[in-house]
Amino acid sequence: MAEFVAWACRSPQRLLTVLAVTLIAVLGIGTLVVDHLSDETPGTTTTTPTVSAEVPDAAPFVRTAVEFARLWASPESGQSLEQWHARLAPMVTEDLAAGLRLTDLANLPGGEPGTTPTVRFVSGASALVAVPLTTGTTVLVTVVDTSAGSADGDLGPGAGADPGGTADPSATQGSPTGVWKVSDVQPDRGDYGSP
Asked: How many domains does the chain have?
């Protein structure tokens, strides 16, 4: 071996040739080892499966949010808290219904739903809808599909459905199955990505 090293070092050209051949041999052997250890057959390509997403229909959530905002924002003249609450109760979750019992009607924004509502978020089970009122105020209304259970846990699977067909038709908010209910309402302060 010492004679080979001495022979390779006698000429710079010979030394570069020996180093180049050694490097090519190491890289070639390394590539063969990696290909052999790999689960894939050399020369094949791996394809990534195509994933697609469906955007849920926001229309039932928007209809529910607008109808709720119409009834919630402006109590009828001379209407008591109990009467106002009774009008809203069929369209809200149990948790929100309990909170609405504490509402001071004088603090409601008034007005009717005005321009086109904006869907800020929608999934198969819930939506956040910004509903502009004619008074210039915008309220954020969270609507949940109670057939899948609500995010706040007050309704279990199947709640809101009417298997016996005896539910009050006004509780369906234009829905064929009556599963959409409002779980929250609050002023739009711009902290949910206002456009």
From this structure: 2
Q: Is residue 45 part of a domain?
A: no
* Torsions phi, psi for 87 (to 5 deg): -70, -35
The CB density around residue 36, as the number of other CB atoms within 10 Å, is: 8
CA dihedral 143→148→151→155, nearest 10 degrees, is: 90
- Indicate the burial class of 65 (C-beta count within 10 angstroms; 0-12, 13-18, 19 or more): buried
Under 8 Å between Cβ of 91 and 181: yes
pLDDT in tens, 1-58: 778 777 777 788 877 787 888 878 888 887 877 777 765 555 556 677 777 777 788 8
pTM: 0.59
- Quote the Cα angle for 140-118-191, to 5°: 45
What type of residue is 177?
A: T
Check if the beta carbon of residue 60 is closer than 8 Å to that of residue 180: yes
Q: How big is the CA angle at 89 (ends 88 and 95), to the nearest 5 degrees?
A: 115
Q: At which residue do the structure tokens 């195509």 appear?
A: 50
Residue 43 in any domain: the answer is no
Report the DSSP beta bridge partners of residue 186. Answer: 140
Beta strands in 64-109 (DSSP E): none
Domain of residue 23: give its range.
Answer: 2-37
DSSP-assigned letter for residue 50: P
105 shares its domain with 148 = yes
